[in-house]
Design a protein that fits this description.
Elements: H1 4-24, E1 41-42, H2 43-50, H3 54-64, E2 69-74, E3 77-83
Antiparallel strand pairs: 1-3, 2-3
Helix pairs in contact: 1-2, 2-3
Length: 85
């Protein structure tokens, strides 16, 4: 049996992966083969999609940085810049 925290963590992870795929399919995104920079996913987009508070999303991203995602910081803002697994 999974806990609510495990379920929320799994849901967040899958939501971010889905947002990442969507962002990479846009006109501004190019494949890694071209050497172009991938389109990042903002913490606000994750919060909006999941319905979670922004602070909770930022805490998740801080903990997942370097493990599941590469996360850039600009002040309080977090941006997923790559998937690591």
């Amino acid at each position: 049996m999974t806990s609510d925290l495990d379920t929320t963590t799994d849901d967040l992870y899958e939501t971010i992966r889905g947002l990442w795929r969507e962002a990479q399919q846009g006109d501004a995104a190019a494949s890694d083969d071209t050497g172009a920079t991938a389109v990042g996913v903002l913490d606000t987009a994750v919060a909006e999609r999941t319905g979670l508070e922004l602070g909770a999303v930022r805490e998740f991203l801080d903990n997942a940085d370097g493990v599941k995602f590469a996360v850039a910081r600009d002040g309080e803002t977090r941006t997923v810049t790559a998937l690591l697994d």
